[in-house]
Design brief:
seven-stranded antiparallel sheet, 2 helices, 24% helix, 52% strand, Polyketide_cyclase/dehydratase, Polyketide cyclase/dehydrase/lipid transport protein, START-like_dom_sf
């Protein structure tokens, strides 16, 4: 199987520990990826968090719920793991959380592999998810810091 790697970088107006904690909490992943509609069965360990996520793929009025097992490996400034989806699509991911002046930079890196014929579609979907996640993180952290009317 061929694999492809790609990354996005997002700068957030929050300290690194707050961003890390947000990414390490499975409940925050609902809506963080536009595909994730539910998380359940959260199991916390000293250096990892395991949970079941439900990804919803829609095509017009039809949808398919893809149930996946996710592990967030918690390191020093990194959260990583990999997911195997139906069809043989495998995504190894890592978030690198680093302080920058005025906030935190998050590098969201994917290594995706898929069978021939599925790779282009899977990469396209993963890049859309990655870009949406960056926008949603910015929205969430800016909303936390905005004065309420």
């Amino acid at each position: 199987m061929k694999s492809v790697e790609f990354s996005t970088t997002t700068t957030l107006p929050a300290p690194p520990d707050e961003v890390f904690d947000h990414l390490a909490d499975p409940d925050n992943h609902v809506g963080l990826s536009p595909l994730v509609v539910e998380v359940r069965d959260i199991r916390r360990e000293p250096d990892a968090v395991r949970f079941t996520a439900v990804e919803r793929f829609a095509l017009g009025p039809l949808h398919h719920d893809n149930v996946i097992e996710v592990t967030l490996n918690l390191g020093d400034g990194t959260i990583s793991g990999d997911v195997v989806s139906p069809g043989g699509v495998r995504v190894a991911y890592a978030y690198r959380v680093e302080p920058v002046p005025g906030g935190t930079r998050v590098t969201d890196h994917y290594r995706l592999s898929a069978p021939f014929g599925l790779l282009r579609f899977a990469v396209g979907q993963a890049k859309k998810v990655q870009e949406a996640r960056g926008r949603e993180l910015v929205r969430r952290f800016e909303a936390k810091r905005s004065p309420r009317s």
